[in-house]
Amino acid sequence: MYSTWFNFNLIYYVGKLFGLYPFAGNYKNLSFCYSLVLWIALCYASIKVLNNYYEYSDTLPSSQKLLKYVIKFETYVTLNTLVQCSSNYKAQQFYVINALLIWTYHIFVAVVFFNDIFFLLFMWSIICLSTTIAILPYIICIRMLRHRYKLANKVFKNSISNPTITTKCFYPTEVHNVFIELRNLTEEVKTYYAFHALLIIMESTLLIAAVVTKLVFSYTNNISTELIYNRLFLIFCILKFQFVFFLVREAHNTIQESKKTVLIAHDTLCITSNTGIIKEFEVFVLSCWNNPIIFDVYDFFDLDYALLQSIIASIVTYTVVLVQIQLAISSQ
């Protein structure tokens, strides 16, 4: 299942250094504390650098050259959201290259336009790349789970649609055991990467809120911030939030694939007249309905489209309230 280009040894040890993978045995709690402290520092550094950059950009003259490149990256983002990846190794390359392009975007701006604060923007680019790379293994594992569900459903469906196979060869117990193993594997994956999903969603939401706050303060107080620099950070927010969308989309597609199992089992009930097989498949159907596959984060929220809607609604509500407060303060 693994591609040859993907060096897991390198990623594993780099992940250990950045607190992305927990230690085993008695060091599990120590690893959790280490990861928590490290990622809190990364999120704080992202917000801090964001504020410092805005203070610096307020004093810079406008640049039509920068605006031209910003528009190009906006076009890239629009096309990027339309890409439909198949379940193969190219999807892994797509996500990794996407993360590297975000890093290249920041480095390019730093080298061409902001030589005097290059180190500041370079470190911020490294932080952004690290937090983005952290969620890539989770996305890849979800795709692998969907591929396994698809293979199991294909075998299950072929076994009941083959005219040469009798109802005695349906093996409901074995089918049930296969999908129990898949459900257990799904639980292990989502439990292992729940911490990473929580961090990337919190970091993306906080950065979007920070950008919105800066824009509201600038426009309500008539601060002369150039539009191109505001658009620069709006693009950054879109790129960061895009990975949350990728994660939710992969989880949603995997859940939809797992639901097809129940439909296949219903078709089996219509084919066979064996009472014993019918009872076993009824138990299997009830088990699938009562224990659906979900990708939740510590039972705090589910990775579905409702999460994206709630984040967007919260940001919009926060913006409206902040604008009203600023206008009320300005009127006084």
Automatic annotation (TrEMBL):
InterPro entries: 7TM_chemorcpt
Keywords: Cell membrane, Membrane, Receptor, Transducer, Transmembrane, Transmembrane helix
Main location: membrane
Superkingdom classification of source: Eukaryota
Membrane-spanning intervals of the chain: 6-24, 36-54, 95-114, 120-141, 192-216, 228-248, 305-329
Biological process (GO), any one: sensory perception of taste
UniProt keyword Transmembrane present: yes
Membrane protein topology class: Multi-pass membrane protein
Cellular component terms (Gene Ontology): plasma membrane
Cellular localization per UniProt: Cell membrane
Cited Pfam families: 7tm_7 (PF08395)
Family, similarity comment: Belongs to the insect chemoreceptor superfamily. Gustatory receptor (GR) family.
Function: Gustatory receptor which mediates acceptance or avoidance behavior, depending on its substrates.
Protein name as annotated: Gustatory receptor
Organism: Aphis gossypii (Cotton aphid)
